[in-house]
Amino acid sequence: MSLIIFIGMAVTVFLTSLLSGIFGMAGGLILLWVLLFLYPVGTAIAIQGVIQMVSNGSRAWFSRAYIDWKILSILCSGVAVSALILFLTSY
Q1: Cα–Cα distance between 51 and 10 in angstroms, integer?
Q2: Per-residue pLDDT tens for 28-47?
Q3: What is the C-alpha separation between 65 and 72, in angstroms, rounded?
Q4: First CA to last CA across the chain, in angstroms?
């Protein structure tokens, strides 16, 4: 990755996170659109996924005092059951 692309990516990530912080939406969509101009589809989706995981993970970590763990455990149980059903029915 050249220095220009690296700097462009850093600026894009910052601006889209700023947009997402102000409006509460559209940051990830615009980031993916920019990444699709720079990389093949699979690579762009993987990069965007990692960026979103870090962003959402850090937000959850900083807000962990406000997480209702009982509700989270119920949601995670539903996700696990749904994933199992999907795994068993996929072909």
Answers
A1: 11
A2: 899 999 999 989 999 999 99
A3: 13
A4: 38
